[in-house]
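tokens incoming
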């Protein structure tokens, strides 16, 4: 498509802000960002001024370049200014790119003078041969539709079905192909069409899964169709040779020799280029048109006695009336039998679309040429069936002696020929007639004015169809090879010359055709090929229907004369006809499609063509999400839907892998990333929303969403995620975080914010899970962003509001190769180990549910789950039976329950001293009365611990201290430890004290520790309703 000339070389003076004038005669010099002057010869540049901040954005008028994927030769492609350039208040020292307008014939203005000279000397690239709608589509489709059936079978079908039902067969076939043509036109006008023909249309509409399978079998069917049409030509030549007593070897080998020589000549024409191939097609078209004229002229030439003996009497009303009704004969004598024989002659409507890459304007040529070809071929079929049925009787002997004698009463004469002096009663009664349209396939040659011209027409029809298929198959296959949907075929996708001719694909098509020509018997394979073509028509109609019902805003075909319901009807009709033609061939065609479809679904090719399947998936997902609003939550359907504060997922793979173990194919998982910045910029926004994170998750085969937010601090970003993540009822109900190992060495503000996130989650009725591993969670990778809220100093960020932006902008997330995946303990298979669950407090059952979900995975299935509870030594057995009975009602399949009185006992003094040392730096000393201490108070530092806080939380502190000893004793060799996490009361338990509880209970443990706390609502039930 050419660029609109009205927009080429737009003058931007009216859009460019004018700098203030220094004086009446003095003109200001445009300056750049660094103060230097810009001097461009033929380019219009947005002018800056010293009075401005060194930057001025130019709003650009609409232009073709902004939407095109390719560049027009001879000038630089124009770029639309970004929203960042138009909207953001840029600092004085910033130097974003300036938007520039260039004239239509100017190349890159930043190039050196030498480069400019070289560019000026370069000639425009030579344009490949392109065809219009007549030569490229209409003639090509008409030639492929006209075939041997037109000359040799249409008169016979007219004799069987009668003129009336023959017209019905023709019109029904044309309706199907016409609707398919309109569907093709709609798809072809919904955007720019490239090379690839049928495969390109289906794959870009229905996606690579169906498109790839149809493209492969369609290319193969065209290759075999070359052999079919060539063998048809070879058989005709052999019969002509036999009439004159010429035989080369024998009947079969003569077909092989003639076929190989013919297809080799056709290959030479094809490889010579599309221009030569198109000229050959025009020659064949003229030959066929001459044969048609010869036939029509022959119907009005008075019939000779020889032709009358064969049943030809010129136009007669009573012959027309007799032949108007059906006269079924033989095993195929039925409407559907005749329909199955005729319908393949109506195919071939995609010949023009198959060379879409060689058309001047495919969006115009394909609709106009295809529909005109269908119209004119339908008219030709109707005319020939009507004229042959009005001129030739059904049965004739061909003997000149079978005239009606005067002694024979006319009442005893059988047949329409009796009125014209001929008596074919004997052969009609004995069913030995050799002529007439019911018995003689060469009726059109007999009727025509000069029979050899009909033979030439047969040659032209067969050779043109073979040539069209020989060109279509490589073109379709080349596009399929370039998309790399299937292995080992990329070699054939290379193009040569200015037209990018697929010479290698031509040779492959030639080899396939030659192999089937050597068989010399294609009666078994022919139905399969017809079914392959019908399968393509079916999917084209389905593509149009599917794209229409999805209501995608991107479905805007310029061809409006189509109906989605007619497309659906034609798709169903094509599928039915496939089984009417040959049921086993239809099963083979669908079987191959489904096998190739399964392979593509398994491989999941990395392509994105905006198919209607994607639009349909969105509609289905949206409707299902809205439908969940009408469904009340029930405890039986509870699923842990996890919001994982993972930061960049690649930096905490263990945390991501653990959550994936109990959410994959079960419930929702969202990886949240908070990028802290006071000055949002493109680099910061890229860190938060880069596709690199999703790519990493997909490479790791983690079924998770990703959501990145930008906030001034970690807690603000976490609150955004807690309140805004999810959609409808598909929203998180469990917050998963990593334990903050450096809470004592990091700034107190960071630790305080960390605990406040937990409080915010509890306020919003979230369950909370914290994962702690002895080796830590953070993995330092090159070119990754680690949130400073976890591993940095917030005080450092407070000095410069934009410093966070600088610190976190460590990568642009541009990846040229897949990132190496690190293996974690949660990806390994665990056998003969235990998952130890310390169910210390009843939180609704989340502490039990998560281990159960883990055991449903293969890598955790062989682990024994042991449940530990606290209790009194005197009632140990009784409490154990009580807990065991409850767990059995939950049907969790756990193996063992133990009651540990040690959990409720006081810890050792040494452990208490260790805990006191841990919180010593957070103690708030009570100042003596009357002193003028300037030490900050509790309100300024809420994380500080007073004596009253310690006394108030003494019991909980002692319990956490003693629990660590129990864990080390019983769970040293476990695969995973799950503990009910204590809850610190907001305002009564300082955040530093709460972190000390979590730290002391999980420190120095070799297995990973998962601290779990539900929202105190049931997630397990033993009721049926």
């Amino acid at each position: 498509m050419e660029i609109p000339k009205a927009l080429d070389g737009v003058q931007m003076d009216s859009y460019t802000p004018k700098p203030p004038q220094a004086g009446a005669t003095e003109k200001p010099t445009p300056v750049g960002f660094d103060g230097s002057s810009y001097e461009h010869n033929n380019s219009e540049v947005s002018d800056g001024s010293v009075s401005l901040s060194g930057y001025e954005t130019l709003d650009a008028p609409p232009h073709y370049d902004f939407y095109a994927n390719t560049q027009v030769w001879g000038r630089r492609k124009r770029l639309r200014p970004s929203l960042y350039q138009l909207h953001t208040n840029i600092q004085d020292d910033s130097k974003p790119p300036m938007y520039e307008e260039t004239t239509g014939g100017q190349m890159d203005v930043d190039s050196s003078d030498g480069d400019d000279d070289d560019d000026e000397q370069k000639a425009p690239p030579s344009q490949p041969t392109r065809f219009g709608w007549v030569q490229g589509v209409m003639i090509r489709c008409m030639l492929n539709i006209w075939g041997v059936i037109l000359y040799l079978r249409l008169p016979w079908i007219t004799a069987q079905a009668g003129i009336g039902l023959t017209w019905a067969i023709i019109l029904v076939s044309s309706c199907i192909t016409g609707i398919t043509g309109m569907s093709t036109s709609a798809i072809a006008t919904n955007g720019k069409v490239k090379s690839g023909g049928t495969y390109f249309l289906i794959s870009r509409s229905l996606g690579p899964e169906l498109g790839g399978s149809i493209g492969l079998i369609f290319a193969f069917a065209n290759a075999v169709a070359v052999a079919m049409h060539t063998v048809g030509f070879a058989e005709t030549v052999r019969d002509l040779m036999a009439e004159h007593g010429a035989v080369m070897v024998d009947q079969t080998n003569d077909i092989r020799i003639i076929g190989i020589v013919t297809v080799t000549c056709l290959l030479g024409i094809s490889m010579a280029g599309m221009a030569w191939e198109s000229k050959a097609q025009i020659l064949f078209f003229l030959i066929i048109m001459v044969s048609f004229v010869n036939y029509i002229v022959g119907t009005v030439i008075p019939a000779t006695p020889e032709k009358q003996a064969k049943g030809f009497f010129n136009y007669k009303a009573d012959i027309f009336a007799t032949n108007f009704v059906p006269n079924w004969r033989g095993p195929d004598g039925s409407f559907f039998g005749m329909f199955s024989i005729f319908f393949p002659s109506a195919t071939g409507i995609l010949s023009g679309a198959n060379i879409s890459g060689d058309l001047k304007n495919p969006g115009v040529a394909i609709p106009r040429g295809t529909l005109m070809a269908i119209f004119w071929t339908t008219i030709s079929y109707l005319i020939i069936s009507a004229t042959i049925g009005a001129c030739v009787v059904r049965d004739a002997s061909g003997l000149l002696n079978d005239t009606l004698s005067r002694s024979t009463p006319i009442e005893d004469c059988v047949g329409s020929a009796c009125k014209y002096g001929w008596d074919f009663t004997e052969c009609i009664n004995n069913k030995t007639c050799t002529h007439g349209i019911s018995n003689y396939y060469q009726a059109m040659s007999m009727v025509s004015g000069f029979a050899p011209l009909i033979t030439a027409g047969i040659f032209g029809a067969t050779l043109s169809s073979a040539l069209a298929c020989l060109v279509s198959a490589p073109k379709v296959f080349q596009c399929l090879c370039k998309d790399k949907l299937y292995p080992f075929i990329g070699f054939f996708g290379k193009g040569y010359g200015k037209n990018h001719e697929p010479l290698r694909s031509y040779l492959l098509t030639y080899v396939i055709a030659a192999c089937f020509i050597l068989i010399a018997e294609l009666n078994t394979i022919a139905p399969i090929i017809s079914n392959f073509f019908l399968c393509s028509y079916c999917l084209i109609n389905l593509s149009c229907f599917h794209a229409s019902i999805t209501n995608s805003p991107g479905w805007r075909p310029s061809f409006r004369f189509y109906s989605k319901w007619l497309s659906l009807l034609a798709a169903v009709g094509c599928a039915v006809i496939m089984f009417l033609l040959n049921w086993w061939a239809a099963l083979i065609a669908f079987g191959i499609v489904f096998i190739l479809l399964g392979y593509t679904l398994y491989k999941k090719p990395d392509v994105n063509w905006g198919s209607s399947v994607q639009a349909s998936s969105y509609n289905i997902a949206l409707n299902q999400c809205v439908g969940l609003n009408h469904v009340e939550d029930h405890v039986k359907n509870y699923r842990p839907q996890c919001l994982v504060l993972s930061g960049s997922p690649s930096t905490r793979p263990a945390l991501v892998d653990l959550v994936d173990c109990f959410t994959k194919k079960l419930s929702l998982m969202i990886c949240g990333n908070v990028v802290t910045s006071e000055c949002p910029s493109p680099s910061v926004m890229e860190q938060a929303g880069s596709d690199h994170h999703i790519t990493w998750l997909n490479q790791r085969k983690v079924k998770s969403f990703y959501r990145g937010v930008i906030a001034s601090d970690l807690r603000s970003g976490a609150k955004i995620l807690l309140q805004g993540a999810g959609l409808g009822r598909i929203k998180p109900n469990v917050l998963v975080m990593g334990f903050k190992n450096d809470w004592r060495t990091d700034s107190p503000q960071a630790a305080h914010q960390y605990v406040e996130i937990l409080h915010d989650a509890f306020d919003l009725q979230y369950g909370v899970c914290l994962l702690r591993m002895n080796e830590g969670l953070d993995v330092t990778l090159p070119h990754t962003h680690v949130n400073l809220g976890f591993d940095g100093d917030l005080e450092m960020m407070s000095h410069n509001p934009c410093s966070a932006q600088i610190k976190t902008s460590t990568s642009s997330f541009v990846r040229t190769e897949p990132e190496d995946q690190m293996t974690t303990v949660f990806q390994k298979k665990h056998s003969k180990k235990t998952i130890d669950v310390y169910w210390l407090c009843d939180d609704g059952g989340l502490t039990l549910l998560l281990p159960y979900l883990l055991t449903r995975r293969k890598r955790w299935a062989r682990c024994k789950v042991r449940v530990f509870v606290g209790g009194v030594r005197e009632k140990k057995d009784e409490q154990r039976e009580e807990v065991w009975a409850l767990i059995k009602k939950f049907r969790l399949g756990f193996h063992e329950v133990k009651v540990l009185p040690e959990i409720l006992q006081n810890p050792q003094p040494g452990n208490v001293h260790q805990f006191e040392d841990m919180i010593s730096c957070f103690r708030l000393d009570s100042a003596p009365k009357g002193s003028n201490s300037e030490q900050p108070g509790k309100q300024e530092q809420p994380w500080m611990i007073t004596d009253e806080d310690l006394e108030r939380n003494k019991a909980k502190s002692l319990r956490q201290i003693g629990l660590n000893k129990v864990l080390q004793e019983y769970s040293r060799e476990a695969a995973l430890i799950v503990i009910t996490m204590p809850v610190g009361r907001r305002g009564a338990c300082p955040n530093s004290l709460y972190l000390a509880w979590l730290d002391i209970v999980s420190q120095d443990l070799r297995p990973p520790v998962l601290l779990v706390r539900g929202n105190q609502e049931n997630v397990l039930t033993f009721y049926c309703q």
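note: The CA atoms of residues 160 and 333 lie 7 Å apart.
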